[in-house]
Amino acid sequence: MTARTSSGAPEFRAEGCTVSTEPYGRHAHLVTVDGPRGEQVLLKAPGWRHTVITDLVRKEHLTWGEGEVMIRIPEGRAAWLMAFTPPPEVSVFDYAPTPQLRTPQTEVSCARFPVVDVHAHLTLDEEQPGQRLGLMRELNIAAVVTSSFADRGETTAGSAELARAAPGRLLPAATVDWSSARRRGGAERMAESLASDVREHGAVLIGELHDKGFGVDDPGTGPVPEDPLFLDDPRLDPFWEAAAALRLPAIVHCGDELAAYEPWDSRNEALVRLFRKPWARRRPGSLGHGEVHERRDRLLKRFPGLTVIAAHIDGSGERLDTVEERLRLHPGLFVELGACHHVLARQPRHAARFLDRWRDRVVFGGDRVQDRATYREQFRVLESDDDAFHYRGRQDPWPAYGLALPDDVLRAVYSGTAARLVPAAAEALIRHEEERTPCR
């Protein structure tokens, strides 16, 4: 093993860079690499192999082999990495049994009915739009709404340019610089910009915004805002008034999954998965899961004409009864699945009843740049009645079960509800039906 620092961290080094480490829990270390901006460097820690290393800025796992990994230093800051080595006594990190159970398996090559995916970030896609459009046709996806990231310097124009490569099928969402509201008259200018995004760029939604406990302009890693802008902050009122007047739904990511708010110890049901996505770790001073949702609910009460699409089953897929209560209280609240099919698949009968009752308030969504296999996993969960199957790269101990949703529920969840919220999606469905060829 390589030499370790006094903190117990491995001794990382990169030529031409300043590298520092600090403990981040018992078995993890935050690694900061400061060097030439925008360039790749080779980070080394010889002999340190049994680990997970994650780029916190780009939010992606890196391939670590033989004690070295190539990283990219961002343009405007140092690189932040999380290195985690599971201790030998916690065997759950290595436990991946081969199931002996054999049950019928359903191959779902495409969705049974046309799909509108309201939640994607295709500016992260390295492929050409034509390749994405080909995948959509293959999988029976009529339209995808894509949004950009203001904290990456992206704007609505970038999503609109991408959408022009597949008109009517890739739909742009408005990208909002939430920090603008801190300046005098900022929210009014944000409202004007939103109207411009609709008029000039064809924005159909307000792209995903996050409040995980430090406000809507918190990047999720690094220093936290000194003056948080929470969803119900009065400084944002002019913006929300404009969104309601424009009838433009907002995709809102409230908090993270419930397990992220519990101690990360042997009793946490999502321990392995949380360690593999360390950007979900709570930072000191954060609002709790319930507090974030309470602020969102106050916003809905103050602006009854506002439509909010709660991302990732409102961060509460393990508490569908709680989600039902929120839906009953707030007519302007909708939920999107946000690649949380694994949560529904743990509770197939309860989840199927929930989707049946609330089919007109649920929309289909993925996240980031979904691939073919992930879409098919989602379709399999919603359509099949398969028992006890597992996903690719599973990080949870329990198996998945198909919900076997009836056709009328599938139609609503896949696209019916989205078509009511987004007129451009309804037009895309008509065009898709005219052009598509059945995949089965």
From TrEMBL:
The entry's keywords: Hydrolase, Lyase
Residue ranges of every copy of the Amidohydrolase-related domain listed in the record: 116-422
Keyword Iron-sulfur: no
The keyword Hydrolase belongs to this UniProt entry's keyword annotation: yes
Highest taxon in the source lineage: Bacteria
GO cellular component: cytoplasm
UniProt-recorded Gene Ontology molecular function terms: carboxy-lyase activity; hydrolase activity
One Gene Ontology biological process: secondary metabolic process
PANTHER family: 2-AMINO-3-CARBOXYLMUCONATE-6-SEMIALDEHYDE DECARBOXYLASE, ISO-OROTATE DECARBOXYLASE (EUROFUNG)
Protein name: Amidohydrolase family protein
Organism of this sequence: Streptomyces bathyalis
